Amino acid sequence: MIEHPDGTRTPVIDASVHIFAASNKDLRGFLREPFKSRGFPDYEMDWYGAPGGEYAPGTEGPQRQYPGSDPDVVAGHLFDDRGVDVAILHPMTRGVMPDRHLGSALAAAHNEILVSRWLDHSAHGERFRGTIRVNPDDIAGALREIDRWKDHPRVVQIGVPLQSRELFGKPQFWPLWEAAVEAGLPVAAHIEVGSGIAASPTPSGVPRVYEHYVSFMACNYLYHLMNMIAEGVFERMPALKFVWADGAADLLTPFIWRMDTFGRPHLEQTPWAPKMPSDYLPDHVYFIQGAMDGPGDTDFAGEWFGFTGKDDMVMYGSSYPHWQHNDLSVPHALSAEQRDKLCWRNASLLYGIEVPAVPAAASAH
């Protein structure tokens, strides 16, 4: 729990904690041939590394293993130092590989690490929840991976890389989203590390430097989302829930306003999606709220959260162990109810997670 300046205490669900294998050699120990001896990119083979270093100091393992790879170190930082009650883990893979079978093998290896080292950890497993990684370029392999892990009691969602070569509303992905609905699991799209195959970060091509990349990459969440609405995915699958796991809630309102404005006169052209586009947001769409999202601690932060119903969509995520991993600083202008939704309630409802106690602010509603 965290204590706010007004003296109240609030549970915390950290909805975005990034975990890694200790090294490429370590990861190979979870691969089988012919993939174990194949080449694949390291986590840090990325065109856009943060200028000051990708990871926060002190997040490595005790023998200098990769940051975010040691459950005891991560648990100490999150649970003991930062007041987190439950952490949602996102294993970091390599995006989409040129060889779809290698991509599926890498996802499967990360899932084995997630379950064996983290979710089944004797000391900390009860406070970890996991994201099973699947390869959207290999639907058959993804369905097998979902079937393998969907019944694990601490698996709470399915993860796909944001850097897809196709928009997620297209019909080739529908069997994957239908399997997620059948398993009762949300789908989380996350910006991947490494240098897999991907479209350009912006519609106009490749940005030059890191600050351009990190500013514009989140726009891809909106392109996927608007395509899913236009293709009728949420109309076809009313129980589907999607988490955009690297922000972009601050972009949602102007984008969806434009989509409503241009869509209103032309709804007859999309009989498979007959509602106003914004009507498909509630109970379908969620965003991780990180350090660089939104207006910050301003007087209009509460009003901004209320636009487009964002206060029911956002969930706090630290992005630990990356450099921007943020202590939970709640804007002073948020109402007590908005604060609870951000800190724990939205994630609790989405993932079915019981928190240690119900805060006083929530008990009045």
UniProtKB/TrEMBL annotation:
Which InterPro entries does the UniProt record give?
Answer: ACMSD, Amidohydro-rel, Metal_Hydrolase
* GO CC, alphabetical: cytoplasm
What one GO molecular function would you report for this record? hydrolase activity
Looking at the keywords, is Secreted present? no
| Entries under Pfam families matching the protein | Amidohydro_2 (PF04909)
The residues covered by the Amidohydrolase-related domain are: 13-353
Record bears the keyword Acyltransferase: no
> SUPFAM superfamilies, from UniProt?
Metallo-dependent hydrolases
Q: Which UniProt keywords apply?
A: Hydrolase, Lyase
GO biological process, any = secondary metabolic process
Question: Signal peptide: which range, if any?
Answer: none
The protein depicted here goes by the name: Amidohydrolase
